[in-house]
Each structure stands twice: as structure tokens, then as C-alpha cells.
Amino acid sequence: MRPQVLIIGCGFGGLEAARALRAADVDVTVIDKTNHHLFQPLLYQVATAGLSAPSIAAPIRHLFRGRHRVTTLLGEVVGIDAAARTATLKDGAQLRWDQLIVAAGATHSYFGRDDWAAHAPGLKTLDDAFEIRRRVLLAFEAAEREDDPARRAALMQFAVIGAGPTGVELAGTLAEIARHTLPGEFRRIDPRQARVLLVEGGARVLQAMPEGLSESAREQLAALGVEVRLNARVTGIDAEGLDIATPSGPERLASRCIVWAAGVAASPLGRALAAATGCVLDRAGRVVVEPDLSLKGHPDIQVIGDLAAAQSHAPGREPKPVPGVSPGAKQMGRCAAANIGRRLRGEATQAFRYRDYGNLATIGRHSAVVDLGTPLGALRFSGYAAWLFWLFAHIWFLIGFRNRFVVLMDWAWAYWTYDRSARVVAGRGLSEASPASGARA
Q1: FAD/NAD(P)-binding domain location, by residue (predicted)?
Q2: What pTM was computed for the model?
Q3: Same domain, 237 and 118
Q4: Has residue 439 been placed in a domain?
Q5: Which residues contact 242 (CB under 8 A, 6 or more apart)?
Q6: What is residue 207's DSSP assignment?
Q7: Strands (E) located in 55-208
Q8: Alpha carbons 440 and 189: distance in angstroms, whole number
Q9: Does any domain span residue 189?
Q10: What is the pLDDT of residues 239-296, one digit of tens each?
Q11: What pLDDT shows up at residue 436?
Q12: How many Cβ atoms are within 10 Å of 153's Cβ, its own excluded?
């Protein structure tokens, strides 16, 4: 009987691990809470009506249709028994494994204020993207019908909390929608008067990037009309707006459409692993792994992607934390698969080494920043050239030719017309749901 490899999660890490096991003499089961693999770097474009959901998602079963040793299942793992080598699903069913790869990913972190989630949705799934898109579009619809100037202003003031890549991309795109896509479609309001606020508790945007590129990003955001509020710590969020603490004192910002992009937390499955194996979790709930990505005392369990507090072990260098980005997850997936092959052959496993290819972030039309690692040193640039590089890099890494073609055509149409083709809100109408009601698209 061939060894059974169970992969929990089919994000970037889980998908790459399953692909890398193609030549191994094992049976693979891939289980995920959704039936699709999601290209998360472009999820914000679904949230802002630039792309439709199928353009950045692919059915998991379709991805493995020709792999007869790969079984795909739809389900949620809630418990792990390391001694019995079984995983328990939410419906009570159990799956047996000989080798386990946990790639369950991450979720939103509201820093202990989960009550804020109802008023400021995050962006991790297609459901999140549909909800944000609904709130944005319905805010303009409600403003068109609002007679009170103060309430109309609150409806047309959008706040994005957190100035990492997701926050920057969301804020820049919202400004473009207000200034280029919607003008001429309303009679009582001018969408160009909408305000987009980017609220960041730190001293600069895109803090993972060099200071020069960070400042360039801030300037490009300002040119698009985004108001960047730095050193502004959020202290409260409710249905009418948010409270922030600034160096000059507390301030109230009225907004009926708030998006959370400020923090992430590891999947709750990390706690289940800790209970089953005694592994250590870091402050974000990530699982501290060994150099080869396995758990201490449990070489048959590997944790990869956003759930892993992993370090890169380059020869002759001090270990460095691996950033929570898709290239890191993919590389961990390949490493985990290779180490399974080594274990089955009786060979020693190898430590994970992360190769940093750089960071990209787009801000809007003709605006982006790029920080690349090359053999000759860092290559950093911004503006139009960076925007073109970002565009073609994301087209290249999309899953499937159809998705690449459709996204390229949608982007080309949007570039020449400023139109955003996915501006459809389904479900309850405006008379039954306000932008912050929590209704689903």
C-alpha cells in the first residue's frame, strides 16, 4: 500500500506541495474549506469590481483532474490526532494519513476587538470581496438618495485601515473608481467628491519596503486623491465611523464604509496542532517549526505557508524569518514535498531556504512600486515602469491560460474606457440593506 499524504488547505503552499508530489509513489488527499484555489494578490480587484470571481479562482478538482493518485475533498478540518494519525472534520468524519502537510493559511486579526469585524470587513476570501464590493457600491447608491449633507458626506467617505500592500491597493483603486469610473452615472451626487482615507498606525506606508519606495508610494497615493493618515492608531469602530488616536489628539472620522487591512492571524488549526503535539505557537498563533518545516518530535507533520513561523536557513548565514507572501508559501510547499520523498527513501531531510525575489505593490493606473532581489543587488523602481512590471508579473503567475487571457482583456478594456465590468450587486436591495448591514453579495 502506498503511503497516504494528507494536505490541509489548497492555497499557494498546499497547491504547490501537491504538484511537487507528482513523481512520488504516494497517494495524496487535498482537503479545503472551499472548492477553489484563489489567487489572493488580485482579490482586491474583485472587491473593487475590476474583475469577476472566476477570473482569479480555479476549481480544485479541475486542477487535479489528470492526477489519479490525488483525491480532492471539500471539508473543514477541526482536529488532529498525532498519535492515531487522523484528522477530524467538522462533520465528524476522519481522514487517515502517514504524512501530513498543514497549509491552512491565515485569517483576519482585529487585535482582540472582534466586535469591529461587523463594521470593517477584512479581505481574505471571495465572500469577503463580495461583501466589500457590496458596501462600496451601495454607499454611492445611498448617497444618491440622501438629503442630509452630513450623512451624505459620511456615505461618501471611505476608510481603509492598514497601509500594507492590500490597504494601499484598495485605497488607490477606490479613488480611481470615484474619480474615473462613476462620474456621469449619478444625478444628485458627484462621485469625484468622495474622500478615500488610508489610516495607518505606523510612520509610513508599505513598511516592509525600503523607505524611498515607501515615500514614493505615499506620493503616488496622494496624486490619486487618497488622504494618507500616518501615526493614526484606531481606537474604535462602529456603524457610523471610526475613532483614531493621533499625535495631536483623538479624532472622529465619519464613514459608512470601512475596510480592515491592518492585521492577520494564523488559522485556528494552529491551536488544534498545539493541543495534539505540544508544538509552540508565536504571538500571532503561527506554529513554530523545525528547520525542515516539521514539528519537533513529529517528523511526519509539516506546517507551511501563513500558518508556519518558519525561518530561512541559508548556508553560512543567520536564520531569518520567512515573510508571509505567496512566493514563500510556494517554496515551502516544494520543500515539504521534497522532504516527504527523502523520508520515504530513508534519507535526511533538508532545511528550508527562502529565496527572496522581492516585493510588488500597485497603487493605481500607472502607479506602483517594485523592490526586486537580483544577483547584482537590489533593483528598485516606481511609477509607470513598475506598474507595467506588476501587471505582467501577476498575469504570468495566474492559474490557467483562460484566467490569464480574461484578466488581460478586462484590464485592457478598463485601461481604455475606465469601466469596471463587475459592478453588480445581487441579493437584498437598497431598501432592505444599508452599506454596513452585513448583507452578502
Answers
A1: 4-316
A2: 0.91
A3: yes
A4: no
A5: 120, 159, 161, 199, 234, 236, 252, 253, 255, 258
A6: T
A7: 57-59, 70-74, 77-81, 86-89, 94-96, 99-102, 106-108, 157-161, 195-199
A8: 25
A9: yes
A10: 999 999 999 999 999 999 999 999 888 899 999 999 999 999 998 899 999 999 999 9
A11: 55
A12: 17
So what's the pLDDT on residue 441?
Answer: 39
Q: Which of 84-113 are b and which e, b meaning 16 or more Cβ less than 10 Å from the residue's Cβ?
A: ebbbbeeeeeebebbbbbbbbbbebbbeee
The three cell numbers of residue 325 are 507572501
d(CA 365, CA 251): 31
Q: How far apart are the first and last CA of the chain?
A: 46
Gap between the Cα atoms of 380 and 393, Å rounded:
15
- Which is catalytic among the residues 16, 131, 146, 169? 169
Quote the CA–CA distance of 204 and 414 in Å, as a whole number. 30
The SS3 call for residue 256 is coil
Report the SS3 class of residue 153: helix
pLDDT at residue 374 in the model: 67
**Residue 141 a catalytic site member:** no
- Report the CATH number that the domain containing residue 381 is assigned in CATH: 3.50.50.100
* Cβ-contact 421, 413 below 8 angstroms: yes
SS3 content of the chain, % helix, strand, coil (to 5): 35, 25, 40
Q: Which residues contact 388 (CB under 8 A, 6 or more apart)?
A: none
Distance of CA 151 to the CA centre of its chain: 32
Exposed/middle/buried for residue 393 (C-beta within 10 Å: 0-12, 13-18, 19+): middle
Cell numbers representing residue 436 in the block: 454596513
Identify the residue whose cell numbers are 504547490. Answer: 16
For residue 247, is it within any domain? yes
In sequence order, which ranges of 92-246 are alpha helices (DSSP H)? 126-145, 149-155, 165-176, 211-224
Number of domains in the chain: 2
Show the domain range for 135.
114-262+366-417
Provide the pLDDT for residue 430.
47
Cα–Cα separations (whole angstroms), residue 81 to 86, 94, 276, 436: 5, 10, 6, 41
- Cα torsion 372, 375, 377, 379 to 10°: value is -30
Task: Give the mean pLDDT of the chain.
Answer: 92
Same domain? For 141 and 257 the reply is yes
Asked if 240 contacts 256 with a C-beta cutoff of 8 angstroms, the reply is yes
Percent of the chain with pLDDT over 90: 83
CA atoms within 13 A on the CB side of 202: 13
pLDDT digits (tens, 9 = 90+) for 1-26: 899 999 999 999 999 999 999 989 99
